[in-house]
Amino acid sequence: xxxxxxxxxxxxxYARSPVILVGDIERGGVFAxxxxxxxxxxxxxxxxxxGMVINKLYGEASLLGDGPRILExxxxxxxxxxxxxxxxxxxxxxxxxxxxxxxxxxxxxAALDIAxxxxxxxxxxxxxxxxAAEPGVRxxxxxxPNGLGRPAAILLPGSKTTLADLAWLRERGLAERIGEMARAxxxxxxxxxxxxxxxxxxxxxxxxxxxxxxxxxxxxxxxETVFAADKRTEQVRARVAAGAGFFETLRGSExxxxxxxxxxxxxxxxxxxxxxxxxxxxxxxxVSADGRVWGTYxxxxxxxxxxxxxxxxxxGWHGQPKHFERRAAYxxxxxxxxxxxxxxxxxxxIQGDDYA
Length: 356
Known about the structure:
CATH superfamily of the largest domain: Class I glutamine amidotransferase (GATase) domain
CATH class of the largest domain: Alpha Beta
């Protein structure tokens, strides 16, 4: 990647696709940002940009006056397709970890406190959106032992570099603190990379992830993981197979999720699996005898209402359960955008064929 590369422009050229440039006005300087970006683009890149959008406006669009029209003239006659008002509680998955809050103080007594470890290479952090949407539940992202406090549960999320993030946990003192809290009765849940970290050992004999070839895990579950070059990426349905703790009320029920991981995790002989994957009969995940410590490769589990509510109740939650549906949030966002965008102009751009 060259130092002047603009994200996704190579993909746009490869796909012969038009580009819409979007600027968030809430950050300030949106006119300078949009114009400056176009001026810095190489001519062949600039040719692909067919429209601009001003996003996240607080207040009335009329307050911008002639700003959008002046911008169009200065920005190589690139049209402004619309000004989109800020949409609160948007509910869709964030694109990257830059949106995550920093480590916060303990939750007050009115909320069930859940701490998510903010790994340096955190991935799939939208796994926890459904938890945060429940009334009486507070989800915090924590990157230091001092920020942990005494949560009802600790969540270890997915990671783009599991072994490196495991080393970071130890360097920060979080690994030791998580172990202490698990032994004191706090819930600990690992998803994907977090599940791998909870085991006894992780090995990377082929060096597919980083230069670290092996490391001891947190020792919270009797499982060992070996990385391989192949990567499993698929949506799955699974049946709850375990009967420990709160899972007893869910045994035999179906959950939906998806897998996106490298490596295989093998448990000790005789350990009951947490889930049985529909279709191929694979077994996934482990849970402690009391149901408080568990891990799985399945992302999106907390989007399943019954599982989410049962787990929260096992932690002492007494809130009014809510239905969570990610698709509804995307529909709401789509309707909002359609209301404030010149859709006919956008369709004309999409259907054009002069992107050589």
